[in-house]
Amino acid sequence: MTLTYVLGIADTFAASVGQRGTSLAGYYQAAFQVAAIVSYSTFLSVALYPLLLRERSEKLMGEVLEFSLLFAIPMAAGAIALAPQILYLLSPAYVVSSTALEFLSLSSIVLLVSTVFDQTLTGRERADLDERERTRSILRSDLMFVPLANLTYSVVYIGVVFLLGSYVAGGAPAYQFATYWAVTQLTLSCVLVAVKARRLTGKVSLYLSRSLPLYVVSGIVMAIAVHYFGAAILPVGLETVSYGLRLALTVVLGAVLYFGVLVAVDHRVRSYARTLFKLVSSLTAGG
User: How far is CA 132 from the centre of its chain?
Assistant: First the structure.
């Protein structure tokens, strides 16, 4: 599992070796640093593994996945809608990586699903409890399948990125390089999730409430609104501090719109909001 992580963060190194330089990798990294924010919602799923160890509820995976997507969807939608404006704040030169940021935002959601699948597969596994044939049981179990699947993904991903770097050395534009790189990650991530979903088939059912489509619809509405609002108040050439403040305002308005719509139409989100309000109130009263 550690080797998988090391290979995953070595993609820039592989691309730079293939290209024999580091200049073009920066266009991808600019988009990746923004898209990585979307993946932070993965941390909302950390409770799944211990819960699965304690109880094997069929609804746990769906509930955790849905709760994580509640935050991942608006972040991805916002990154897609405001990709040029966000990258312009970093540097006008990075705006050409806007398409890469759009694909990487989607990839972050796919990898979030992959993480939830990992925790479900390993958390439900009981092969390590077999005292008689523990080693053989573990080798055939999901405790071995998950790291091997992730390792295979990382090896293939690094190899393709290296080849992309070699191709770019032949003269492809920087924005194409960043986009191809992002598409590679998204494609391989989808394949990885499909493999894990196939492994999950018959072991656990995916229970999702009717709230998830509302998250998607609210995210689309928010993305359209912030796209046009951002285009109106974020002109090219604006002073950096003023531009950053206006961009932050656009993000805040997008968040208010997204969660405001959900609070109005979805009872589950209203329940989350009431629970959060009670928690904050109790902490404030205790302080």
Answer: 40
* Of 199, 182, 189, the residue nearest 150 (C-alpha): 189
pTM for this model (two decimals):
0.86
Calculate the alpha carbon distances from 214 to 44, 63, 211, 241, 285 in Å. 19, 15, 5, 35, 34
Number of H helices, E strands in the chain: 13, 0
How confident is the model over 66-123, as pLDDT tens digits?
A: 888 989 999 999 999 999 999 999 899 899 999 999 999 999 999 999 988 988 888 7
As given in the structure block, the two tokens for residue 164 are: 């992309």
- Using DSSP, state whether 99 is helix, strand or coil: helix
The two three-digit tokens of residue 184, written as one number: 């590679």
Alpha-carbon distances, residue 140 vs 128, 152, 201 (angstroms): 11, 17, 16
Contact 152, 188 (CB under 8 A): no
Query: In whole angstroms, what is the distance from residue 26 CA to residue 152 CA?
Result: 26
Give Cα separations from 84 to 31, 39, 80, 95, 236 (angstroms).
Answer: 10, 20, 9, 5, 10
Report the distance separating Cα 67 and Cα 134, nearest Å: 35
User: Rounded to an integer, what distance in angstroms lies between the CA atom of residue 131 and that of residue 218?
Assistant: 50
CB of 254 closer than 8 Å to CB of 222? yes
Q: How deeply is 37 buried, as exposed, middle or buried, from its count of CB atoms within 10 A (0-12, 13-18, 19+)?
A: middle
Residue ranges of the domains in the chain? 2-207, 209-287
Ordered alpha helix ranges (H), 10-97: 11-19, 25-39, 48-54, 60-81, 83-90
